[in-house]
């Protein structure tokens, strides 16, 4: 309770309009506590979200929020981070947003390894349009808003993220705030693209993934070391994550913290030496009301007669 | 002096280089130059060509018939022989003589069909040699040389012979047309300066063919000043403008004819800060699709970086949802949009001006935007800077509208544009809390960048803080704030960025045009004015918000209005009709994907009295 009160400074003055009992409240609380614990500078922290119930979180947290388009939070965030690497950038989106309409970007961010934590609010349904099946809903499942059982296979965000190259993989549960907060704090400090999948009961539309279901079908990772700092161990680590994910129950905790890969910013800087010193958002290269004084004469040479 | 030359060959066979060589050689000799490049959506084997025009006066278009034709294959001859003027020069390798013109696998069947008919009607056999004979009788000067053999004699290494054939053919052609050996050598030296062995082979090829040919009508001489001139394609011009104007972040997804611009930007490694320190190139990200390209660019713009994304019609289609987001969130986003033939994949490598209405109207809902259309390479560079300025000054998305014609044509720009930077109203940290969408008398809220203050953005309707609001009264205020910026834009943008008149202010006929067509119409103006009516040209540059007042001022003085455009509808004509309440029954239109040439404008203008709507079909 004390931590919760302390985290109030990370609440904006906008009323969170999620359904009473929504898993998003747990995510919201854990996030605020994590931001407090990590001591983030509010103006330097950019929360980028997609569309749907999850997307609204950008307005409720008292950091700068960019509430974007359905499926597109990741490329917005990538542009922000790439232009100003000094900002902290976190993405929030639903399973439909990030793994349905936005799947291409989800994969692309893993390939880039930009320092962005993607938080997947996984409730198995499209909540804000009244509960249609999402890409993470299990085959054959029929929630109360569907006319027929789901005929599509589900995607696993952790395994997809691993295949795409994400270097931080974790799964939490919306109602275990203390555990989720720790995942947020770990994810925030990770240097690379990360996925934090959160099992989030949708109390209104998903009558399958309930608190009871979660209690029976999940377990917490114990004696599992997520750290990977030796490329030679990568295959073995990934095989073991596959094994975990092929189990009957879903594991909660941090699967992978891979420190063997360069970040997007480091990769850019390896080609463009001045990138980190002069990132695109650097001010002062131009002066309002004056002719630009950037020297491009060497570039012009190849065109001169 | 006004020479038109076509050099054609299979794609991947060095035609691009031959065209560059020709245009640089002519420019080296002090001539004005303009070159069009036509190619298929194909990497190797299909027909491509460069149409190079060189003159002692400034030019912005190509003209038919041509004075010389150099071909590397039989298809190029089959395609272009009819475009040669009487007395013109044809150059090819003697090895082509036995080739059949009707059995070329890469030739499209429609073209073969037309050619067969032509040959039959003129009683010409189907071999190159037979066509050569017929052309000679018609007054064409045929120069058939054993280029492979000549290259062997010139000690060009065997693996380089095929690769030097283009230089040999274009060298022989240009020397015969009066371009001096040293101008050709200068061009070759520039093109191959990084490859010693290739350079030497090409120089030997030039020397060999110059020794064997002579200028048919003497050497030609130009007086154009070469200092501070830059030979560029439109893609280069836009990139140069962006670099000068402080662009630091560009995103793109590969698409013709836009991608070359991004290559120039990412390779612009040697940019220096005002204090002399290395700054390096802008960050260029090749995104996973155009949706990512535009949304990354928006993200960049929110951080204060001067940001653009560059695309063509199909990519722009994918960007539209995000364009609306940028409009709603008042983001200074620049989209550089090169039109090509549509709909769908259409003619991916050909010219078109059929996206005017799309650029103006694309997107759901209503929001302010600027659409600025450049008409030549100098404007393209200048407008690239202006677009970034306007985006920041008015906090609106800006679409810089170009076309494949400008993107790929080559010409010289006389000077690098000098444009004063305008970054708009910036936020300075006050005591009170920051409101990103603060209501102000101008409608422009002081802009803070992400990282400078707390702020919120949403695609939903929002309040002054940027939080979602569905309140009716806020809706009216915020809606008006966003959309009524159009009036401010119209009042602040100078007239020269809106519409430009060419020719005398005293006219009977006014030709309204835009984009790449401007060059052909302006070039045609002298010939057109030889008739009994006085004619002027109005180039419209700002398409949105539409400068109705200025355009009406010009249309009001004319007794007859004519539009010249690269589309079927006459989109600019429709726009002017609607906005200025005038009638434009006369339309000269072309949608084959090929450029409108100067001669086409001249002839079409004469036909207008019998035929108000003319569809042009010139060029291959």
Automatic annotation (TrEMBL), chain A:
UniProtKB keywords = Iron, Iron-sulfur, Magnesium, Metal-binding, Oxidoreductase, Thiamine pyrophosphate
Instruction: Give the signal peptide, or none.
Output: none
- Its Gene Ontology molecular function terms? iron-sulfur cluster binding; metal ion binding; oxidoreductase activity, acting on the aldehyde or oxo group of donors, iron-sulfur protein as acceptor; thiamine pyrophosphate binding
From which domain of life does this come? Archaea
Q: Note the InterPro entries from the entry.
A: 2-oxoacid:Fd_oxidoreductase, OFOB, PFO_beta_C, THDP-binding, TPP_enzyme_TPP-bd
Q: Where is the Pyruvate ferredoxin oxidoreductase beta subunit C-terminal domain?
A: 202-272
Cofactor(s) required, per the database record: thiamine diphosphate; Mg(2+); [4Fe-4S] cluster
Q: Which residues form the Thiamine pyrophosphate enzyme TPP-binding domain?
A: 51-197
Single Gene Ontology BP annotation: sulfur compound biosynthetic process
Name this protein carries in UniProt: 2-oxoacid:ferredoxin oxidoreductase subunit beta
Q: Which Pfam families match?
A: PFO_beta_C, TPP_enzyme_C
Enumerate the SUPFAM superfamilies for this protein.
Thiamin diphosphate-binding fold (THDP-binding)
Check the record and name the CDD domains matching this protein. TPP_OGFOR
UniProtKB/TrEMBL annotation, chain B:
The Pyruvate/ketoisovalerate oxidoreductase catalytic domain extends over 12-208
The source's superkingdom equals Archaea
Q: Which Pfam families match?
A: PFOR_II, POR, POR_N
Which positions fall inside the Pyruvate:ferredoxin oxidoreductase core domain? 510-600
Which CDD domains does this chain map to?
Answer: TPP_PYR_PFOR_IOR-alpha_like
Name any Gene Ontology BP term.
organic acid metabolic process
> Which GO terms fall under molecular function for this chain's record?
oxidoreductase activity, acting on the aldehyde or oxo group of donors
Which ranges carry the Pyruvate flavodoxin/ferredoxin oxidoreductase pyrimidine binding domain?
A: 242-480
Going by the UniProt record, its keywords in alphabetical order are: Oxidoreductase
Tell me the protein's name: 2-oxoacid:acceptor oxidoreductase subunit alpha
Give the species: Candidatus Methanomethylicus mesodigestus
């Amino acid at each position: 309770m004390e931590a919760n009160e302390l985290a109030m400074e990370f609440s904006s003055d906008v009323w969170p309009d999620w359904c009473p009992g929504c898993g998003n409240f747990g995510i919201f609380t854990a996030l605020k506590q994590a931001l407090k614990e990590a001591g983030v500078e509010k103006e330097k922290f950019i929360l980028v979200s997609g569309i749907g119930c999850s997307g609204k979180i950008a307005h409720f947290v008292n950091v700068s929020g960019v509430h974007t388009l359905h499926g597109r939070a990741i490329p917005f965030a990538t542009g922000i981070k790439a232009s100003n690497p000094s900002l902290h950038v976190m993405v929030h989106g639903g399973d439909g947003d990030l793994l349905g309409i936005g799947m291409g970007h989800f994969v692309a961010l893993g390939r880039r390894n930009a320092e962005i934590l993607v938080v997947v609010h996984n409730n198995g349904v499209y909540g804000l349009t009244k509960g249609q099946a999402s890409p993470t809903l299990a085959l054959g499942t029929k929630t109360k808003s569907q006319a027929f059982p789901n005929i599509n296979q589900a995607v696993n965000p952790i395994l997809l993220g691993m295949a795409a190259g994400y270097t931080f993989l974790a799964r939490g549960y919306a109602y275990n705030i203390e555990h989720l907060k720790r995942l947020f704090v770990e994810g925030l400090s990770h240097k690379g693209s990360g996925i934090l999948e959160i099992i989030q009961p949708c109390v209104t539309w998903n009558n399958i993934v309930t608190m009871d279901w979660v209690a029976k079908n999940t377990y917490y990772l114990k004696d599992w070391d997520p750290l990977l700092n030796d490329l030679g161990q990568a295959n073995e680590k990934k095989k073991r994550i596959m094994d975990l994910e092929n189990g009957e129950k879903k594991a909660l905790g941090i699967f992978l913290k891979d420190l063997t890969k360069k970040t997007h910013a480091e990769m850019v800087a390896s080609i463009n030496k001045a990138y980190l010193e002069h990132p695109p958002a650097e001010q002062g290269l131009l002066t309002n009301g004056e002719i630009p004084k950037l020297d491009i004469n060497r570039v012009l040479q190849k065109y001169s007669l | 002096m006004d020479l038109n030359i076509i050099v054609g060959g299979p794609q991947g066979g060095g035609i691009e280089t031959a065209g560059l060589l020709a245009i640089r050689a002519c420019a080296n000799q002090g001539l004005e130059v303009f070159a069009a490049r036509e190619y298929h959506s194909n990497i190797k084997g299909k027909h491509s060509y460069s149409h190079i025009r060189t003159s002692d006066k400034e030019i912005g278009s190509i003209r038919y018939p041509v004075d010389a034709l150099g071909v590397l294959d039989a298809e190029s001859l089959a395609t272009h022989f009819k475009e040669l003027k009487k007395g013109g020069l044809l150059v090819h390798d003697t090895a082509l003589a036995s080739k059949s013109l009707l059995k070329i696998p890469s030739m499209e069947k429609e073209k073969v069909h037309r050619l067969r008919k032509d040959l039959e009607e003129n009683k010409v056999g189907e071999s190159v040699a037979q066509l050569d004979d017929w052309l000679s009788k018609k007054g064409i000067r045929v120069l058939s040389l054993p280029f492979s053999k000549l290259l062997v004699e010139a000690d060009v290494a065997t693996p380089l012979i095929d690769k030097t054939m283009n230089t040999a053919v274009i060298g022989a052609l240009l020397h015969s047309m009066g371009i001096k050996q040293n101008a050709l050598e200068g061009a070759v030296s520039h093109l191959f300066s990084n490859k010693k062995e290739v350079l030497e082979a090409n120089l030997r090829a030039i020397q060999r063919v110059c020794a064997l040919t002579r200028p048919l009508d003497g050497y030609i001489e130009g007086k154009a000043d070469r200092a501070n001139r830059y030979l560029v394609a439109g893609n280069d011009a836009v990139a140069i403008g962006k670099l000068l104007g402080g662009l630091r972040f560009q995103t793109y997804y590969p698409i013709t004819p836009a991608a070359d611009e991004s290559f120039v930007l990412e390779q612009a490694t040697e940019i220096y800060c005002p204090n002399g320190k290395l700054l390096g190139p802008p960050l260029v990200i090749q995104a996973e699709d155009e949706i990512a390209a535009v949304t990354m660019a928006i993200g960049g713009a929110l951080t204060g970086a001067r940001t653009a994304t560059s695309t063509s019609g199909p990519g722009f289609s994918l960007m539209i949802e995000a364009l609306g987001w940028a409009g709603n969130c008042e983001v200074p986003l620049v989209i550089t949009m090169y039109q090509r033939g549509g709909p769908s994949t259409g003619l991916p490598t050909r010219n078109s001006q059929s996206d005017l209405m799309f650029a103006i109207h694309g997107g759901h809902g209503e929001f302010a935007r600027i659409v600025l259309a450049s008409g030549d390479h100098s404007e393209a560079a200048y407008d690239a800077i202006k677009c970034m300025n306007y985006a920041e000054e008015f906090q609106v998305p800006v679409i810089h509208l170009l076309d494949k014609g400008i993107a790929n044509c080559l010409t010289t720009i006389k000077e690098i544009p000098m444009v004063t930077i305008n970054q708009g109203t910036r936020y300075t940290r006050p005591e009170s809390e920051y409101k990103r969408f603060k209501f102000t008398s101008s409608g422009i809220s002081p802009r803070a960048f992400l990282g400078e203050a707390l702020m919120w953005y949403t695609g939903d309707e929002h309040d002054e803080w940027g939080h979602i609001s569905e309140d009716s009264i806020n809706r009216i205020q915020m809606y008006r704030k966003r959309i009524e910026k159009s009036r401010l834009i119209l009042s602040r943008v100078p007239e020269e960025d809106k519409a430009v008149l060419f020719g005398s202010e005293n006219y009977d006929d006014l030709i309204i045009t835009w984009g790449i067509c401007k060059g052909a119409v302006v070039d045609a103006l002298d010939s057109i004015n030889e008739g009994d009516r006085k004619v002027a040209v109005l180039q419209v540059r700002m398409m949105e918000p539409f400068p109705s007042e200025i355009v009406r001022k010009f249309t009001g003085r004319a007794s007859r209005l004519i539009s010249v455009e690269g589309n079927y509808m006459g989109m600019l004509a429709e726009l002017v009709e609607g906005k200025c309440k005038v009638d434009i029954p006369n339309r000269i239109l072309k949608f084959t994907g090929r450029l409108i040439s100067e001669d086409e404008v001249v002839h079409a203008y004469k036909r207008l009295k019998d035929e108000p709507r003319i569809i042009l079909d010139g060029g291959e």
